[in-house]
Amino acid sequence: MKKGSPNINNELFLSLLEKGEKCAFETLFRLYFTKLVQIAKGYLIYQQEAESIVQNVFLKIWENKESLGDVSNINNYLYTMTKNLCLDQLKHEKVKRNYIDNSYRIKSEIQYKFIQDEAASLLLENELQSKIVQSIELLPEKCKYIFKKSRLEGLKHSEIAAQMGVSHKTVDNHIASALRHMRFHLREFISISQ
Amino acid sequence: MTMLDQKIYKYLRGTATSKEEKEVQDWIVSSDQNTKRFFEIKAKYVSSTLDDAHIKIDPYFHSIVNAKNPTAKNRRRLPLNILKSAAILAILVGLGFIFRDAMVASRTTPIIPEDAIILQLENGNIEVISEDGEAKVVDSEGNVLGAQQGSQLVYKNNGTSKEEITYNTLTVPYGKRFDLLLSDGTQVTLNSGTSLKYPVQFLKTKNRQVFLDGEAFFSVAKDTENPFIVNTHELNVRVLGTKFNLSSYPEDQFVNTTLLEGSVVVYNKQDTFDSSNASLLEPGFKAEWNKYNRQIVVEEADIAMHTDWLNGKIILRHVPFKNIVKKLERHYNVDIVNNNPELDEEIFTASFDVESIDQVFKTFNLTYEMKYNINDRQIIIN
Questions:
Q1: How close does chain B come to A194, measured CA to CA in Å?
Q2: Which of B51, B60, B349 shows the shortest C-beta gap to A55?
Q3: Mutate to test the interface with B, among A48, A93, A191 (most CBs of B within 10 A)
Q4: A84 to chain B: which residues are within 8 Å by CB?
Q5: How do the pLDDT tens digits run along chain A, 194 residues long?
Q6: pLDDT score, position B92
Q7: What ranges make up the beta strands (E) of B232-340?
Q8: CB neighbour burial string for A36-67, b if at least 16 within 10 angstroms, e if fewer
């Protein structure tokens, strides 16, 4: 595991996903969707294509959630899947590349080489991971604790409640507010970074 | 930051001019070392944008998880269709070239009046401009104001100090495009089904004003003292010197202004221009005026989608069929009657350049089965 890993490659998190837990999926979705779109856009240029590629990534995860047991690192899995779908897309474009004007052809050849460049891939994958860690770290303390216990370590709400000496209901509320907060926060974070 | 770094950065942002783009690309491919260096810069650049996305992600989330116990077909329909059509089209674009020669031959049909490019002079006289003709624009005193050079009409700046503005109107029918060089050096390309009214000579003391009905690409000659203003039905676009695309067809819901270089301001025609009621556009962005709710939305634009008509292409990205119909009608000079309201809302991603309208419909039919009849210029979908 890489240094500073957000720990969301935890088996229990995956097992939550496998059981079809919408919350586990939503967490993953909210943390990763826009970031993966930015990466896909870097590979493909066009915003709409990038969004539709990443939508497909998550659709595939949701559809195949029963068989995610083999995944050992979600960050790597999501990044690689996005990259592969982009590569497929670029391969399709290669068909017509021979027929289009020179400048565009050179541009798309550069894109095609870029997606296959290992140093660039490694840099992007690591950066994605550290950005995800930051997003989680910016949650309020208590929320963050419960959120990590539940979503990242896969503890049941009743187990967290027992550990913290609070009621089951309180844990439910914290989880709900973590998700809400994350939604809000990610949006806020996005506007600040402008 | 060195000049080169700056250019690379502009290239990555998509705001480089075509000249700068070429310079950067030449530099990248000139050595393996440069290529590596570029990839490193690009990876860092993309990394720095990871938190920048402005996307409403809720609809995507719901579209994925709300497909409760769907049949495999329904569940996969939208996203896969888009990919599938993109793939099929990529191949068809290739095939299209095989048919190109045949197509070019069939395009040179004899000119019928409603098919002609028309120039209306100040006195109301109408001249038909053939695409390979040598038309001349002459004023009432016999002075030559402009002349046709190939597929372009060029107006001269003869420096007269006239006090009255006289206008010409150029109208380009469906299925054609035409270039215009105005007397101030501004270059305009008119898309199919477009008419532009413009002064034969601009007056030194007045704003440069033209009137657009349809879609055109403007490369405005710089004149900081005399702003260039494009009037459309509801919206005005005011610039000093820049490149932008403006699409304002009366039948479309949106008026789109897409900026490539420089800066432009867009404002509601009912307001007089001042900085408080105008939207300023940066390169790479577009202003979309919605005629229904009378609002302007400024957002990052897919430049190619808005300007590829200049190269005779139609590029569609996530466009509902009802909006595609109008583009096809204008591009191919056909009438399309769609009796299937469900199809209207179906979203397509596609690009066409050399395909015939037959091939276009065959392509749509591959991803969305439709019953249609092509009868000369009329296409009926049931």
A1: 7
A2: B60
A3: A48
A4: none
A5: 333 444 444 555 566 566 666 767 777 888 889 999 999 999 987 777 888 899 889 988 888 877 776 777 788 889 999 999 999 888 876 655 555 556 667 888 898 899 999 999 999 999 888 887 777 676 666 666 776 776 666 677 777 778 877 787 777 777 776 666 555 444 443 333 22
A6: 44
A7: 235-239, 243-248, 254-261, 264-268, 279-281, 285-290, 295-300, 314-320, 335-338
A8: bbbbbbbbbbbbbbbbbbbbbbbbebbeebee
CA distance B130 to B189: 16
Q: Which of A90, A24, A34, A23 is nearest to A57 (CA)?
A: A34
Q: Does the model's ipTM exceed the 0.85 cut?
A: no
Nearest-10 crossing angle of helices A168-192, A22-44: 20
**Segment A52-101, tens digit of pLDDT:** 899 889 988 888 877 776 777 788 889 999 999 999 888 876 655 555 55
- A99–B94 C-beta distance less than 8 A: yes
Distance CA A106, CA A112 (A): 10
Whether residues B42 and A42 touch (CB distance < 8 A) is answered with: yes
- Render pLDDT for B5-46 as a digit per residue (tens, 0 to 9): 888 888 888 778 878 888 899 999 999 999 999 999 999 999
pTM above 0.80, yes or no: no
Interchain proximity A119–B35, CB inside 8 Å: no
Given a contact cutoff of 8 angstroms between Cβ atoms, the answer to whether A120 and A114 are in contact is yes
CB contact under 8 A, B50 and A131: yes
B261 vs B3: CA distance, rounded Å: 18
Report the amino acid identity of residue A33.
Answer: F
- From CA B287, how far away is CA B264, in angstroms rounded? 10
- Average the pLDDT over B162-178 and give the result: 84
Alpha carbons B117 and B192: distance in angstroms, whole number: 10
Distance between CA B190 and CA B216 in Å, rounded? 5
> To 10 degrees, what angle do helices A22-44 and A118-137 make?
140
Asked whether B153 and B119 are in contact (CB, 8 A), the reply is yes
Report the alpha-carbon distance of residue A179 to residue A27 in Å, rounded.
7
Q: At what angle do helices B32-48 and A118-137 cross, to 10 degrees?
A: 10
Q: Which residue has the tokens 């006090």?
A: B163
3-state secondary structure of B162: coil
Longest Cα–Cα distance in chain A = 68
Ramachandran angles phi, psi of B377, nearest 5°: -95, -5
